[in-house]
Amino acid sequence: xxxxxxxxxxxxxxxxxxxxxxxxxxxxxxxxxxxxxxxxxxxxxxxxxxx
Amino acid sequence: xxxxxxxxxxxxxxxxxxxxxxxxxxxxxxxxxxxxxxxxxxxxxxxxxxxxxxxxxxxxxxxxxxxxxxxxxxxxxxxxxxxxxxxxxxxxxxxxxxxxxxxxxxxxxxxxxxxxxxxxxxxxxxxxxxxxxxxxxxxxxxxxxxxxxxxxxxxxxxxxxxxxxxxxxxxxxxxxxxxxxxxxxxxxxxxxxxxxxxxxxxxxxxxxxxxxxxxxxxxxxxxxxxxxxxxxxxxxxxxxxx
Lengths: 51, 242
Fold this sequence. Notes:
The structure holds 2 protein chains of 2 kinds.
Chain A: H1 2-6, H2 11-50
Chain B: H1 2-8, H2 11-43, H3 57-84, H4 87-119, H5 127-146, H6 152-165, H7 169-179, H8 199-231
């Protein structure tokens, strides 16, 4: 297992490449999902107030 | 077929169809990512020259391909919006721009991290790296221009023209490793007749590329839906949303 994480001595390079990619892609996905939810919430609240 | 297409191009229909597709896109993205990562990091054999450092290809390759694919998608959508005045096409172009920028950023950063142990340098100003950096600036310029106008129609049109002009950069990126001398390696995957990569190394790369494509569709659908609701908040159909 520790051999797997060591990546033959290239651990710092391999894991930082995967880590940075995962981080930016996850942040973008979370923001997009939140924007979708919030847009719908705003419409729903508006309809509540109309009633 | 055409009526289906016209229906999809109408914002309320896209909103609903997108909502139905999202769970499938999301689950498929996660499954493919897990499968591709396991294949690339665990199952694929070590490269005899680059050892385990070659595994960076499993994030670098897909981000680089998708940075170009997303740009073409953005430019085609912007072109459709410009020619046929289709509102939804501009929304799609706006929605994919930051996703393409993230792919480009990841391609540049992971390439740099890969270059350090293999080439001995983080960066060289060669054609491949410089044209990919230009791609990042095209995305950022597009996003800035699209948001710079008070009149949304003007912003849509101006940014669409920039997106279309920027397409010339795509073949430059693709062929840069053949046209100019460079540290960057030539294509390994696109020449299928004489593949210079073994199948055990290749299949996780293809799975990762597919995973990145589904990630694009998932995140784009979220972003398109959000922008549709924002643009159409005064339309009657939004009143019936549950």
